[in-house]
Design brief:
oxidoreductase, 281 residues, alpha/beta, elongated, Rossmann fold, P5CR-like_CS, 8 strands, 2 domains, disordered C terminus, ProC C-terminal domain-like fold, single chain
């Protein structure tokens, strides 16, 4: 069971950190006053302060006020942040949780004092509505208690599972980038409805609810998506005609290719992060 007085810090208060903060508060896993956030961009801090979160310009203060510290900064500044907070991180007290893509556990542990407990997490933005899909990997010194804490913390804002660190690039390509693929699908379905005469707002609501309902069916029934697809596909009917159009357009291959491309880009960014002189653009 999570400590009711758990103190959580966020170094970086951008979009993903904001989503996590709001999700954790909404789930009742932490009170706003027990959360501390730092950022170099004052408007980001102002947004958190308006929610009752303690804000500061000092990353070291975040560490001093927190038991769990999320690194929610761009990958190219993780090294400098770790160098800054190194002497403030107590392995017996602090758990460092990084959501920075492409920064390995080994590299982070190497910049902190011996014994530092580190976990890498790849969440996604639907944690803002408590529907995150997240995966995490434990560092060398992370404990079973740390595993349970991260599982509960991330599970409070959606689905969370432990994976090998080597699998996190694939997680990035699938669920990390996946919401954008689904938004594109919803937009395309809605455009199809408009093309066939539906009002824009009606088409958008129907498309979004259809995706939500279909996902809920997969999650709650335990049936393979292919089985659920076959159950609504009548011989000679409308659905099989639509599926044929998708197959002819290479829908499956495009979806698979998106995951592969995003995974490969994550791997490229990881390689670039190890070479400071190169740009990730």
């Amino acid at each position: 069971m999570m400590d009711e007085n758990l103190s959580i810090g966020f170094i970086g208060a951008g979009m993903m950190a904001s989503a996590l903060i709001k999700g954790v508060i909404k789930a009742g896993k932490a009170k706003p006053a027990s959360i501390t956030a730092s950022d170099a961009y004052q408007p980001s801090l102002d947004r958190q302060a308006a929610e009752g979160v303690h804000t500061t310009l000092s990353n070291r203060e975040v560490v001093s006020r927190s038991r769990v510290v999320f690194l929610a900064v761009k990958p190219d500044v993780v090294a400098s942040v770790l160098d800054e907070i190194k002497d403030d991180v107590d392995p017996d007290r602090h758990l460092i949780v990084s959501i920075a893509a492409g920064i390995s556990l080994e590299s982070m542990e190497g910049r902190l004092n011996s014994g530092a407990r580190v976990v890498r997490v790849m969440p996604n933005t639907p944690c803002l509505v408590s529907e995150s899909a997240a995966a995490f990997a434990l560092g060398t010194h992370a404990t079973a208690e740390d595993r349970a804490l991260v599982q509960e913390l991330m599970g409070s804002v959606g689905y969370a599972c432990e994976v090998k660190e080597s699998q996190l690039d694939a997680v990035t390509g699938l669920s990390g980038s996946g919401p954008a693929y689904v938004y594109l699908l919803i937009e395309a379905l809605a455009d199809g409805g408009v093309r066939m005469g539906l009002p824009r707002q009606v088409a958008l609501q129907l498309a979004a609810q259809t995706v939500k309902g279909a996902a809920t069916m997969v999650m709650t029934t335990g049936q393979h998506p292919g089985q659920l697809k076959d159950a609504v596909t009548s011989p000679g009917g409308t659905t099989i005609a639509g599926i044929e159009a998708l197959e002819k357009a290479g829908f499956r291959g495009a979806a698979m290719g998106a995951v592969v491309a995003a995974t490969q880009r994550s791997q490229e960014l990881k390689a670039l992060s190890a070479t400071p002189d190169k740009s990730s653009k």
